[in-house]
């Protein structure tokens, strides 16, 4: 096309005013930097999402059976026994999860109390997340023991093998409450701290305390009840087939969740944060692209005589607009492609060499460098964004050319 050839000639030819060349370079650099930032940030979010997926298996069972209505499975031990007989199931154990209050050394905080059996470390990889002490739910000195999250340990000021016991308080589920004796409305127990774990997931690391199933049931006035039944599969078992078999065996009163569904809210939050950040960076790209308006405006002024000549030769207004629209596209395209290449290149270097490190004690971190992963869908989204922004800016500026 004639308008494209003229636009390319305008772009590569020397300008009579050096400021036009400088502003053109600044415009391309602004688009390139903004594009590079978008690619890098989206890739970092992908990396943290992958990290979250990899850490799921360390805390969550492969399948979790929960009541479809309410919070309690009344006959949890029987349900666990039925599930254990299903082909492909290696182990199924009941577990309890409820809110409670923990106190240690004059400090207190609300916690998520989990009651599990000793086999829980075989159902999940929780024992691989212990950073202090060991995974043990009983102790020869204290009798009952707990494994607490790193956030709980920091807020209560305790640690594995601490000399004092940690007190747990849970509101009574059964019986009458005496207003004259408020403490009688709570059931309490004391446990030693056997270990501290960290799974790098804020909802688990912040306020979780794991105790034995017997302790949790005693605190919650439970007999054979549980909040869920956690299931581990045999090696090589088909998860979907086993899941369907569990649904058929337990009936419609239960829901069966895989690991992704168990952490659906956390993973959704990562995705939401990622695309909110994308929108914010898109505005930065739009602002950076306004430099293109300055470039095209100065180019229009410089090429005023050329436009008059083109008009004298019979060029229509649409052709003149097309020249400067394509000029804006060229500037945006070069900046966008440069930014994409730089962004992908930096991500590859980060993946290979881990150039940017996470702060903190490396011995206590599961990853020492920012995790990144470049995704084709993200690249296409960035390309679409650059094309749209470039078109809008070029269209706006080309209106001035006709005037």
Describe the structure.
- The protein has helices at 2-12, 18-59, 76-84, 120-123, 150-156, 202-205, 213-219, 239-250, 259-262, 264-302, 304-312, 317-353, 376-402; strands at residues 63-67, 89-104, 107-116, 130-133, 138-139, 143-149, 166-171, 186-197, 208-212, 228-233, 254-258.
- It is an alpha+beta fold and 403 residues long.
- A six-stranded mixed barrel has the order 2-3-9-6-8-7.
- A hairpin with a 3-residue loop joins strand 5 (138-139) and strand 6 (143-149).
Furnish the topology, listing elements before pairings.
Elements: H1 2-12, H2 18-59, E1 63-67, H3 76-84, E2 89-104, E3 107-116, H4 120-123, E4 130-133, E5 138-139, E6 143-149, H5 150-156, E7 166-171, E8 186-197, H6 202-205, E9 208-212, H7 213-219, E10 228-233, H8 239-250, E11 254-258, H9 259-262, H10 264-302, H11 304-312, H12 317-353, H13 376-402
Parallel strand pairs: 3-9, 6-8
Antiparallel strand pairs: 1-10, 1-11, 2-3, 2-7, 2-10, 4-8, 5-6, 6-9, 7-8
Helix pairs in contact: 1-12, 2-10, 2-12, 2-13, 10-12, 10-13, 12-13
């Amino acid at each position: 096309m004639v308008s494209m050839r003229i636009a390319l000639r305008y772009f590569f030819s020397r300008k009579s005013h050096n400021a036009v060349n400088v502003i053109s370079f600044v415009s391309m650099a602004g688009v390139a930097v903004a594009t590079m930032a978008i690619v890098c940030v989206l890739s970092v979010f992908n990396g943290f999402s992958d990290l979250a997926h990899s850490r799921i298996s360390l805390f969550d069972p492969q399948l979790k059976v929960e009541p479809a209505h309410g919070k309690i499975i009344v006959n949890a031990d029987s349900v666990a026994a039925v599930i254990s007989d299903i082909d492909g199931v290696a182990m199924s154990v009941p577990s309890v999860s409820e809110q409670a209050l923990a106190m240690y050394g004059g400090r207190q905080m609300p916690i998520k109390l989990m009651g599990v059996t000793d086999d829980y470390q075989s159902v999940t990889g929780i024992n691989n997340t212990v950073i202090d002490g060991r995974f043990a739910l009983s102790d020869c000195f204290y009798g009952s023991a707990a494994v607490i999250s790193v956030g709980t340990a920091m807020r209560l000021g305790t640690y594995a093998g601490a000399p004092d016991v940690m007190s747990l308080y849970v509101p009574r589920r059964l019986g009458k409450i005496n207003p004259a004796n408020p403490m009688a409305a709570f059931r309490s127990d004391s446990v030693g701290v056997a270990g501290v774990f960290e799974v790098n997931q804020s909802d688990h690391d912040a306020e979780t305390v794991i105790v034995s199933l017997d302790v949790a049931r005693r605190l919650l006035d439970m007999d054979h009840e549980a909040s869920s039944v956690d299931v581990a599969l045999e090696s090589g078992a088909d998860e979907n087939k086993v899941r369907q078999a569990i649904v058929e065996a337990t009936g419609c009163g239960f829901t069966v969740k895989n690991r992704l569904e168990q952490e659906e809210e956390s993973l959704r939050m990562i995705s939401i944060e990622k695309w909110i950040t994308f929108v914010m960076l898109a505005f930065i790209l739009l602002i950076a692209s306004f430099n293109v308006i300055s470039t095209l405006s100065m180019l229009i002024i410089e090429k005023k005589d050329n436009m008059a000549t083109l008009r004298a030769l019979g060029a229509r207004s649409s052709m003149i607009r097309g020249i400067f629209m394509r000029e804006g596209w060229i500037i945006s395209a070069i900046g966008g492609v440069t930014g994409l290449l730089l962004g992908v290149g930096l991500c590859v270097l980060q993946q290979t060499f881990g150039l940017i490190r996470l702060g903190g004690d490396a011995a206590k971190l599961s990853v020492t460098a920012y995790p990144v992963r470049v995704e084709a869908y993200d690249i296409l989204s960035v390309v679409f964004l650059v094309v749209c922004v470039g078109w809008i800016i070029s269209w706006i500026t080309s209106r001035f050319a006709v005037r």
